[in-house]
Design a protein that fits this description.
heterodimer, A: four-stranded antiparallel β-sheet, B: mainly beta, six-stranded mixed β-sheet, five-stranded antiparallel β-sheet, 11 strands, globular
Chain lengths: 115, 111
Amino acid sequence: NAGVTQTPKFQVLKTGQSMTLQCAQDMNHEYMSWYRQDPGMGLRLIHYSVGAGITDQGEVPNGYNVSRSTTEDFPLRLLSAAPSQTSVYFCASSYGGGGLGYEQYFGPGTRLTVT
Amino acid sequence: EDKVVQSPLSLVVHEGDTVTLNCSYEVTNFRSLLWYKQEKKAPTFLFMLTSSGIEKKSGRLSSILDKKELFSILNITATQTGDSAVYLCAVGGGATNKLIFGTGTLLAVQP
């Protein structure tokens, strides 16, 4: 099993550009989520999905879109990048919702810099 | 507002020392408390706690939950340089059953 994979590992964007962060898992997990991690802020939930075709907002959803067309893939789209979106982004998956106590498996992260 | 607070923010110890990391929470509809270890990459799972007073152990690491006083501790005995990492506490629950993370404790173990 590859587990949770993310691409790219690093990305530099200019303000206003758009891009998609890719996330895939091969564990047949229903629940997938995107977090951002900033110094002193811990991990904050951006969006999550409880299954194919179902997504919902987390704590900090503004400026990001998601979709879940398959169980395996959960891409995160930045519509118009802003310097405030400079962060490390983690994708995670689990059998059930993280809030229900299921262990979440994290991808290796994408370090994004917006200039 | 649901919140998870970890202390201390950072800690420097020498190899062989024992450390205790703290996690307190105020989360409605508590479901579980999880500990993760994060080295330079993604967080990796350590423990999940759901019941008060039952210690979970894995080698030199152990953790316990007190649901009455709303906190958990993570103990590491005979620390090694490989224990250097950020330790994250997360609580499952809240109004929308999500994981709420603390900001983490940065542990540095010196030789």
